[in-house]
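Exercise 3.2. Students should predict the tertiary structure of the chain below and write it as structure tokens, then compare their answer with the key that follows.

Predict this chain's 3D structure.
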Amino acid sequence: MFGIGLQELFFIAILAVIVFGPERMPELARQVARFLHMARGYARRAQSELRSELGPEYADLTLRDLDPRQAIRRHVREALAELDMEERESTMRAAEAAALGEATPALPTPYDTEAT
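Answer key:
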């Protein structure tokens, strides 16, 4: 929850009691709860409007999917998985060639453009 731990939350609660007084705390808690309820409603409505505007191919879209950090993480994971799959396939081909007694396919020689 926003990177706030139990100690920080406890400190904020004590500070709120000192600043606002214990008699106003229940009303402030109700106002905060109403605000959070409204904010969730706005987010749900925005998400449903976005889904309806984009069409059926984006029916499983969530607002978290629109976070650029999440999109980058997803693309990096997919790329790493693809590289891992290619590495496994090349290892399997080399193992099959070795089992059949064939010569292993030669790998391209590394070439450094800055060395020349």
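Discussion points: The two ends are 54 Å apart (CA to CA). The CA atoms of residues 36 and 89 lie 51 Å apart.
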